[in-house]
């Protein structure tokens, strides 16, 4: 299906998409890309629904299976991450096919290529049930197209109203680092602490603010902070709602991104829109979107020393920091919901043959 040959407003009958995933903003604060998409589809008068908001994994699975079997929808869109690819999709996808509903897989997980390499035949069988494969990641699009799949690129979007721009202000005497992720091994929070420990030698007034929910690693990170004597330098905030995140981005010196995998990088996009210079490990989709040295700084070596050296470059070069800030904001403006939403409408209409 070629999206360029379709139009978003040629509907013969109403769209009623059901989006399947983990939608836990009520307890974890941050609204994810799919929740944001559904909210904006509803503003366009489309009856879009979400499943599931259940916190408990078993209750969430039961909720999803029940909704797929019995609720009223005419399209099923499933967020695909490493965790649900081989466990839940083989269960719910045949149910959607049984009800003769078009099935869309939205590929998110940065580790999906590793799963494919380990379980090639199983993933091929699951993907064969989809009416369309979609991803916000150029990295995943390239990987799976090289293996014979057709994948539509629909990037994640951002509300520029929630993340207004401000020029960076870096005071090398009291520089402020910001980290926004879940406390999970995939996001390397301990690397942020180790980086801070190195930088403290040259910048004794430095601080690190860490925002995000606990996904199993928070206690370990807090213990590392104590071991390294950094308790006065690290501030744990917990989850923060989207409409409050912008204030943190604009009040800090450098945003550090330590994730080991990155299928898109919403937090990087939010930071770039807000004007804070970004220093990130060079992983996944990031080098396919962001120009290294011009828009953000990418770090090749996944070490605290390499991260600290690159952050120091930004601290000591305010002109560079300002240039990166301006250019990154321009790039972020390409990812507005106004630009992305019509592409989703085109895709969904096309799957219904209208």
Structure in a nutshell:
The protein has helices at residues 25-28, 33-43, 57-70, 82-85, 89-98, 112-118, 120-127, 138-145, 189-202, 218-227, 242-250, 266-274, 286-289, 304-315, 318-332, 337-351; strands at residues 17-20, 49-51, 75-80, 103-107, 132-135, 151-153, 176-180, 207-211, 234-238, 254-257, 278-281, 297-299.
Report low-confidence residues grouped into runs of 5 or more: 4-10
Sheet with most strands: strand arrangement: 2-1-3-4-5-6
**Mean pLDDT across residues:** 92
Q: Order of helices and strands, N to C?
A: EHHEHEHHEHHEHEEHEHEHEHEHEHHH
Give the C-alpha Rg: 21 Å
The tally of helices reads 16
Count of individual beta strands: 12
Helix content: 40-55%
User: How does the major sheet shape up?
Assistant: 6 strands, parallel
Estimate the strand proportion: 5-15%
Distance between the termini: 12 Å
Could you say which overall geometry the principal axes of the C-alpha atoms support? globular
Which class of secondary structure composition applies to the elements? alpha/beta
Written overview of the protein:
It is a single chain. With 354 residues, the chain is α/β, with parallel strands linked by helices. The protein has helices at residues 25-28, 33-43, 57-70, 82-85, 89-98, 112-118, 120-127, 138-145, 189-202, 218-227, 242-250, 266-274, 286-289, 304-315, 318-332, 337-351, and strands spanning 17-20, 49-51, 75-80, 103-107, 132-135, 151-153, 176-180, 207-211, 234-238, 254-257, 278-281, 297-299. Strands 2-1-3-4-5-6 form a six-stranded parallel β-sheet, with helices on both faces. Strand 11 (278-281), helix 13 (286-289) and strand 12 (297-299) form a beta-alpha-beta unit. Helix 9 (189-202) packs across helix 14 (304-315). The longest helix is centred in the C-terminal third of the chain and has 15 residues, at 318-332. It starts with 16 loop residues before the first strand and ends with a helix.
